[in-house]
Amino acid sequence: MTRVSIAADAYHVHEHKVSRDDGGEIAIRTYYPAAEEGVTFPALLAIHGGGFMNGDLEMEDYFLRIACVDAQIAVVNVDYRLAPENPYPAGLNDTYDALKWTARNAALIHADLRKGFIISGKSSGGNFAAVAAHRAKNDLFFAETPLTGQILQMPAVCHPDVVPEHLKEKLKSMEECKNAPIFTRQQMLNAYAILKADPANPEISPLLYPSFAGLPPTYFQICGMDPARDEGLVYAETLQENGVPTKVDIYPGAPHGFSAVFGRTNLAQKWNRDYKDGVRWLVSLSSGGSKA
Q1: b vs e for 85-96, b when ≥16 Cβ sit within 10 Å of the residue's Cβ?
Q2: What is the pLDDT of residue 21?
Q3: Cβ of 277: how many Cβ atoms within 10 Å?
Q4: Does 287 score more than 90 pLDDT?
Q5: Average pLDDT in the chain
Q6: Can you tell me the mean pLDDT for 25-31?
C-alpha cells in the first residue's frame, strides 16, 4: 500500500483482551477518531484475510487507521485463531465473540451502534463476515443492536465441491481463473482443507444457507481475475433477489489480493477509496445517520 500521511493525534488506538466462550482470550485492537467529548461514531468489526491460516493484528493495521479517520468510524480489529492448529469453528467463533464484544462495549470505543454497526471481511475474512451476519440475524443477543451492514471483499462463499447444480453455469471462475496470479484454485482448495470441516456446511459455504432474507445491506468488492469471482457475484445477486440493498464494485483483470501486492497501482488506490465510500454508503442507510 502507498503510505498515506495521517496525523497521530487524529485517532486513538487501544489494545484489549476479549474472553472467549470457551474460557480463552482473543486480542483485539480498537481505533476511533479524535473528537470532542460526547461525540460518537458508527462501528465496524474488521476481519483480516489470509486463507484461514495467515494474518494478525498488523495485517490491516495501517489501512484501518486511515479508514477510521477518513470515514469517521470506530474500528475493532480482531486477532482470531488460525488453522490448521485451530480448525473450524475456532476462527469463526473468535470473530463472533469479537462482534459481541463490540456490541457490549460500544461506549468504550466511542461508538453509537444506531449510527451504524458493520462487519467487514476480506477473502477468508469475508467468509467469516458472511457467516457471522447469518448467525447474528437469528441471535437474540443482537435483537437490540442488529448489524446494519456488511462488507465482503473478494469473499469465499462456496466450496468448489458443493456448488449447487443450478448455479454451475454461473460459477465458472474457479476453472477460468484456476492459475491466476497470487491466489490459485489449488491454493483456495488447500485453504478450505485446513478447516477440517464439511464443505456442505453453510458455515463453510454460506451460499448454501436456505434463507438470505433479513441480512443487512451489503457492499462487495470483487476481483475480475479471481477464482472466487463468480461466487461473490452470485452471492450479491442472491442477496438482491432477497431484498437486501446491495452495492458491487468490480476490478476488471485484477487478481485476488492485488491491492496488497500491488498497492501503488491506480487500481489498488481505487480499491482503498471505494472501501471507504462503501463504509459511508452503509452508514448512510442506517437509521441514525452519520451525525454525532
Answers
A1: ebbbbbbbbbbb
A2: 77
A3: 16
A4: no
A5: 95
A6: 97
